[in-house]
Amino acid sequence: MLEIEALPAFTDNYIWLIKNQTTKQAAVVDPGDANPVLAWLEKNKGWQLSDILITHHHQDHIGGISTLKAKTSATVFAPNNPGIPNKDIIVTNSQIIHIIGSLLRVIAVPGHTLDHVAYYAPTQKNMPARLFSGDTLFSGGCGRVFEGTMEQMYHSLQQLNELPPDTLIYPAHEYTVSNLKFAIAVEPSNNLAKEYLDKCIGLRESQQITLPSTLSMEQRVNPFLRCDQVSIIMTIENTLRLHPTDAKEVFSDLREWKNKF
């Protein structure tokens, strides 16, 4: 059974450490900094870092690759972007990859960047499915659209929205509290979002992380997965004085609003 641990990096990044207790092999997702990973390996003697998974080319996700590769010879899985160093296996949409005794499916999710992928581990041995979503889907929110289009990002999120509802969501950043504050501004009548925000504020005040979330929770509180809701459309019309004609336009209006929130 795979175990997942968060290694905090920088101010709000998480490097996700995936562990196989049987083989004592580990993989990491988006090591923007090598030091948290090396510190974990030093503390946990006998473990081998065998794989590095990269979701996209931004520096806070790739900065530790070269050092980790030099020290561990781990296999680097990454999308085909020239800015990502030390790639061993270039991943593409729907590809199945094998890491530390488990199979993961690659899901192309352009929008935040054009090369962005997510890694999906299906349900196994009574464990729910897990999604390493990088900077595409956050708890309560989604990533900014830097290189792709709003339509690409909308469709990428719709792909993820079709995964099993009990899928555990592992984003790359601790943005939950700020995202939920925006979600409540968008949908003031969403009492579950208010309760979830209170819970997450309590977790952060106790120095605990708010992740993982579940897709079912995101479907109920995350406005970027709720673009067909009348309550959200009404807020856009009344607050922004805009009149979106479909869910893609609702998403675009929300994302532009969040950029300035």
Automatic annotation (TrEMBL):
E.C. number(s) listed in UniProt: 3.1.2.6
Cofactors: Zn(2+)
Gene Ontology molecular function, alphabetical: hydroxyacylglutathione hydrolase activity; metal ion binding
Pfam families assigned to the protein according to its UniProt record, in alphabetical order: HAGH_C, Lactamase_B
Pathway entry: Secondary metabolite metabolism; methylglyoxal degradation; (R)-lactate from methylglyoxal: step 2/2
Xref: InterPro entries: Clx_II_MBL (IPR035680), Glyoxalase_II_hydrolase (IPR050110), HAGH_C (IPR032282), Hydroxyacylglutathione_Hdrlase (IPR017782), Metallo-B-lactamas (IPR001279), RibonucZ/Hydroxyglut_hydro (IPR036866)
SMART domains: Lactamase_B
Cofactor notes: Binds 2 Zn(2+) ions per subunit.
Protein name, UniProt field: Hydroxyacylglutathione hydrolase
Purpose: Thiolesterase that catalyzes the hydrolysis of S-D-lactoyl-glutathione to form glutathione and D-lactic acid.
Residues reported to bind Zn(2+) 2: 60-61, 135, 173
Keyword Zinc attached: yes
Reaction it catalyzes: an S-(2-hydroxyacyl)glutathione + H2O = a 2-hydroxy carboxylate + glutathione + H(+)
Assigned keywords, A-Z: Hydrolase, Metal-binding, Zinc
Keyword Transmembrane helix: no
Residues the record lists as binding Zn(2+) 1: 56, 58, 112, 135
UniProt similarity note: Belongs to the metallo-beta-lactamase superfamily. Glyoxalase II family.
Subunit structure: Monomer.
GO BP term, example: methylglyoxal catabolic process to D-lactate via S-lactoyl-glutathione
NCBIfam families named among the record's database cross-references: GSH_gloB
